[in-house]
Amino acid sequence: MIRSVQAAPRLDSRGYPTVQVDLTTDRGVFRAIVPSGASTGANEAIELRDGGVSAYGGKDVQKAISNVRLVIGPALVDSGLKVDTEQKMIDSLLKNLDGTKNKAKLGANAILGVSMACARAGAAHSGIPLYEFLQRESGAKRPFVMPVPFFNVLNGGVHSGNKMAFQETMIAPVGASSFTEAVKMGSEVYQQLKKIIIEKFGPSAIGIGDEGGFAPPISQPHEALDLLVEAVSLARYSGRIKFAIDPASSEFFRDGNYDIGLKDDKPNLHSSEQLTELYRSLLQNYPIVLLEDPFAEADWDSWTKFNKECPVELVGDDLLVTNMKYVQKANDKKACNSMLLKINQIGTISEAIEAANLAYSFDWSVFVSHRSGETTDDFIADLAVGLRTGHLKSGAPCRGERVAKYNRLMDIEDLLGEKCLYAGSQFRVAYK
Ligand code: PGA
Ligand code: ZN
């Protein structure tokens, strides 16, 4: 059924090469392009880059591409596995071909591209949309639930050149009545935010970061949140839009302390306790509903302590790397109550689904995520609907690779019409 598997280097949104896979079956050609992170977790599956003095400053992906062409492709064709009913077997074949714990041999970028393309082919061969194929694979319930989009409208950390240590400040239109209305609300707030930034900092301050959010000259989380309060109020959505923060704190964790002045050239060290105090005050003063990676991936004890008192969704990204082993560990340690789902952190669609189902079994939430280095591939839009995760983040409502996902979700909502619900304020428990 699978006739051939080809791969080629194509650019991601940061201008670096990534892996594009074209999988040919008797029904056509099915394409997938793999994303790439910047604030990556230490335990993520390995993204294979050529390194050394190769092209693209060492970031070329020729090795990963020949692994698709010469190793994975022939093995898949020989296996005779069926794309419509045997995704799990395909993914275990990919995993076993690699044979390492973290896909270091063939590269998670090579493997994931093939896994995604197989799922697309599987949906087409089954005569159903991709979200329905993923729903079938995961065993998620019906009806389909449209996720709340968490728009990252202010970019900091390693995603922008301003002095803000915190990586992401997001708006979540939980009070919308549909996904499409949520996009409209997000876009209107984004445009208000732009006006405010011009007024406060001048027109040169409206440059955007890797995920499409603005990166004005601010450095403190409360400055970011104050801007959002103002923008939401100008757009007349106060009360209907909530906030979320992903400090991506592993990036500014140094020798047991958090340096939130890292990008400001003057150290501003916070102990875990002081950082916790900062989060407490932010949670008290702003309508925040979700906090991701508030502590570093190595700082497990702080997670556990904070989880006891945290009144909002506490999401593990670098901490869990979409890997069952760390999801299990975090549940044993009671370290968080939600898993970020990034397919390239683990490298196959079946393993990503297994990790999500494990998280659900602990009564956690699952939050689907893009990477900061993206492409116009919109796979994760279908994934969020198929797994009924209730929320997803794909950056600002701006930049082609970010809006590709939001636009696909509006297509899905149009397609499903009455047959879907919008998660709204129930985004944490939509899967139930
Ligand atoms: P990344 O950032 O894609 O650069 O890792 C996203 C995140 O931290 O959530
Ligand atoms: Zn994160």
From TrEMBL:
InterPro entries: Enolase, Enolase-like_C_sf, Enolase-like_N, Enolase_C, Enolase_CS, Enolase_N. One of its GO terms (biological process) is glycolytic process. Keywords: Glycolysis, Lyase, Magnesium, Metal-binding. Residues 2-134 form the Enolase N-terminal domain. Residues 143-430 form the Enolase C-terminal TIM barrel domain. One of its GO terms (cellular component) is phosphopyruvate hydratase complex. Mg(2+) is required for catalysis and for stabilizing the dimer. NCBIfam families: eno. This is Enolase. It comes from Penicillium vulpinum. The lineage of its organism: Eukaryota, Fungi, Dikarya, Ascomycota, Pezizomycotina.
